[in-house]
Amino acid sequence: MNSDAQQRFLPFALPEIGEEEIAEVVDSLRSGWITTGPKTRLFEQRFAEYLGGGVEAVAVNSATAGLHLAVEALGIRPGDEVITTTHTFTATAEVVRYLNAHPVLVDIDLDTYCISPSAVAEVMTKRTRALMPVHYAGHPCDMDALAAIARGGGAEIIEDAAHALPTHFGGRLIGTLPSAATVFSFYATKTLATGEGGMLVTMRPDVAQRARIMRLHGIDRDAFDRYTARRPSWYYEVVAPGFKYNMTDVAAAMGLHQLRKTDAFSARRAAIAARYDAELADLPLVLPPRPAAQTGSHAWHLYVVRLADDLRLTRDEVVQAMFEAGVGCSVHYVPLHLHPYWRATYNLDPRRFPNSQRLYERGFSLPIYTRMTEGDQARVVEALRAILKRV
Q1: Residues in Cβ contact with 322 at an 8 Å cutoff, skipping those fewer than 6 apart
Q2: What are the residues whose beta carbons fall under 8 Å from the beta carbon of 66, sequence distance 6 or more?
Q3: Which single residue of 56, 78, 160, 378 could bond 208 by disulfide (Cβ 3.0 to 4.6 Å)?
Q4: 1 pLDDT higher than 80
Q5: Over the range 243-258, which residues count as b (16 or more CB within 10 Å of their CB) and which as e?
């Protein structure tokens, strides 16, 4: 790559951090509350209010932590099975192994890139304790079908909503459906970014209470309670062997303002996706699936295109050529069945997951983030058009 391209390299993703977030973080630093404190409490409250539906929100230091707390709160035990998709980041499955339970991996549907309900139904057993659907790229899973399967098998649902703020299904925001828990991510590239962080939401008081206790060493009182109480506050009790998963007020300070901008961010991402749809329509690509308007909405965390099957260029060649043109792209994901640990532990064969394998081999993600200008997006389109028209 020449020096000119390096100077004007367009990254795959960038967070949009304003002066409001910066000022709130500075205020936290000056206040002395830099761990879990009043701003974390306020962020939880406002996040629950944003979703509505009577949910409780538990702030954590990552979506991985939130997923772990969810499976632990549901009493998943060694030998139990949790069904999820192979087409996800490893965190979705690894939290099941934390409890010595077994993730059962299934394929995706190519019309949504989300977990296939029919594939889920085929692997349900008496040992299935939970389903863990992933709202891939911001597209909602078919939650009606999954809920019916879960009810029929006596299983719970934990939604991996790391990509899905704000995503709707059946007229309701993801996070307000009757699942046992839903977990969002606030990683730096997500639609709401606090650097690191996540939120577990649930309508079940027992799940919320257990998650709050277990996120901080199994202690029955948060630090905020202990240090602001009017009575002697040094005493606490450990009621379970918990974890260190609490969110800090520094992260929550960012989250408060990111949350306020969520709908505007969502509209901007949708506009970028619509422009991509229009300007890439004539290229040898399969554009991202969109939910039917009456079924749901897309958060557009990712914009994933797939090379046409008859195109001679490979995915790796196109991504490398985009990089050389000064445009960063990514791949979501290397499916779990191709990673050494998961492949060896569960004897996974790619032929069991043809749709995931196809998306992996031919798919890649274009830049989509709110700080993109029209000129930035034009560069992406022009670069991709030039590469695909070489053949």
Answers
A1: 328, 329, 383, 384, 387
A2: 58, 60, 181, 183, 184, 198, 199, 200, 211, 245
A3: 56
A4: no
A5: bebbbbbbbbbbbbbb
> Residue for token digits 């990673």?
339
Alpha carbon of residue 218 to chain centroid: 26
Max distance between CA atoms of the chain, in angstroms, equals 75
Instruction: Say which residue the tokens 């699942």 belong to.
Output: 179
Whether 5 has a pLDDT exceeding 60, the answer reads: no
Angle (CA) 61 135 147, round 5°: 110
- Which residue ranges form the domains of the chain, and what is each CATH number? 19-260 (3.40.640.10), 262-388 (3.90.1150.10)
Q: List the one residue out of 183, 185, 224, 201 whose CA is nearest residue 57.
A: 201
d(CA 56, CA 209): 10
List residues with catalytic annotation. 190
Amino acid 283 reads: L
Are 387 and 352 spatial neighbours (Cβ–Cβ below 8 Å)? no
The 10s digit of each residue's pLDDT in 305-345 is 999 999 999 999 999 999 999 999 999 999 999 999 999 99
Q: Over range 221-248, report the average pLDDT.
A: 78
Residues in the chain, total: 391
Q: Which of 206, 250, 241 shows the shortest CA–CA distance to 61? A: 250
